[in-house]
Amino acid sequence: MPTSPTDDLYYELALTLLPGIGPQLTRQLMSYGSSAKNVLLLPPGKLRRIPGVGEATIKILTGPARGQALERAAASLRQAEREGVDILFYTSKKFPARLKLLPDAPVLLYYQGTADLNAPKTLALVGTRQATDYGREQTERLLKGVLPHQPLIVSGLAYGIDILAHRAALQEGLATVGVMATGLDVIYPAAHRKTAEKMREQGGLLTEFPFGTPPDRYNFPQRNRIIAGLADGTVVVEAAAKGGALITAELALSYDRDVLAVPGPLGAPTSEGCNLLIKTNKAALYQEPADLEQLLNWDAALHLPGKFQPPPTYAADDFSLDEFALITVLAAAAGREEHMDTLAWKAQQPIHAVASLLLALEFRGVVRALPGKRFGLL
Fold it and tell me: How far apart are CA 62 and CA 309, in angstroms?
């Protein structure tokens, strides 16, 4: 783990610790500064030329807050090294490729574990905190059913379906990652500490929140977007008419990810949300593993080699960061063409820049242009 102030990660971490500098602005600054160190050393005159940067932001980037962020970054790097935590900036090759496709993706993650965050197959299981015996049974049956695929199981370490999913995955020998709404050093709820310790050895713990972050209620909806974004598909096992599970399902749908729901008894409060998702065609019906396999195209092959990434023809080192971001988006489309506006949105790049990049990639024989400003990989 890098600890020297000359390392890129030191400045990348400091940039994310500045107040008022969110993920989108971080990417904007990086696109102009090319590195976090450059961004933090830019004079006010050059910062003013960057779209979206006003005087308040310049004050943050050049004032006392910068020094404080650098001090916190150094301390966090030392703590990460002591505790075996990987800090992943969005430009890192270890950063989850699925998350890079999200318009509201985090730019930095703290990860402690052994699981591959770019596993070929990933599945999120979410549900109510008031899980019933029916929910427990369906969770355990589902995980036994997908065992031949060896997917990475993702959930939120919360009471109810979340912790049942993690424990069932551990029991079946599947890697499972808990996405936390706190810092990695703050296990919440504390009652799940033993399970979390096992997950560090057979999966992992993941968060976008710095060390020491308490379980603030506003963090949980923010955490849910990572659960939805990490997975190929999300299964809602039990859910009330309102709650975090339905928020996660809606987020997954907004990311063009598949959602399934386990139907429940009519009139059961813990099944109202699942039945509503199915009734309104927001979720596919889950009754058996074949339902999931067909929807996620897992029935084509039981074990897919390698990681989730663009086709092996295209290596990140052969392209600029922005070019490879577009290639990643097109690869995730699985053969479908994407409109230029959609590409710009998913890659979080200005539309004029995307047009130039696509033209360059077309000349290199990487993408093909189609009528209606649509593009696909060759």
Answer: 37
Spatial distance between the Cα atoms of 57 and 53, rounded to a whole number of angstroms: 6
Q: CB–CB of 255/102 below 8 Å?
A: yes
Inter-residue contact 297 to 120 (CB < 8 Å): no
**How many Cβ atoms sit within 10 Å of the Cβ of residue 303?**
10
Both 53 and 133 in one domain: the answer is: no
Give dist(CA 358, CA 115) in Å, integer.
34
pLDDT-derived band at 338 (thresholds 50, 70, 90) equals confident
The pair of three-digit structure tokens given for residue 338, joined into one six-digit string: 């994407």
Domain identity same for 251 and 158: yes
Q: How many whole angstroms separate alpha carbon 106 and alpha carbon 82?
A: 24
Using an 8 Å Cβ cutoff, are 235 and 278 in contact? no
The answer to whether 299 and 292 have CB atoms below 8 angstroms apart is: no
State yes or no: cis peptide before 2, omega within 30 of 0: no
Residues 76 and 221 in one domain: no
Could you tell me the maximum CA-CA distance found in the chain, to the nearest angstrom?
64
Gap between the terminal Cα atoms of the chain? 38
Per the structure, how many domains does the chain have?
3
pLDDT of residue 5: 44
Of 87, 88, 85, residue with least CA distance to 112: 85
Decide if 91 is inside a domain.
no
CATH of the domain at 240: 3.40.50.450
Instruction: Give me the amino acid identity at 347.
Output: A
What are the tens digits of pLDDT across the range 293-336?
A: 989 888 754 444 455 555 556 777 788 888 888 888 888 766 67
Q: Residues 260, 145: contact at Cβ < 8 Å? A: no
Residue range 97-123: mean pLDDT, rounded: 91
Q: What is the pLDDT of residues 205-259, one digit of tens each?
A: 999 999 999 999 999 999 999 999 999 999 999 999 988 899 999 999 999 899 9
Residue 111 near residue 206 (C-beta atoms within 8 A): yes
Question: Whole domain around residue 10: which residue ranges?
Answer: 1-82
Q: What 3-state DSSP class applies to 217?
A: coil
Same domain, 128 and 218: yes
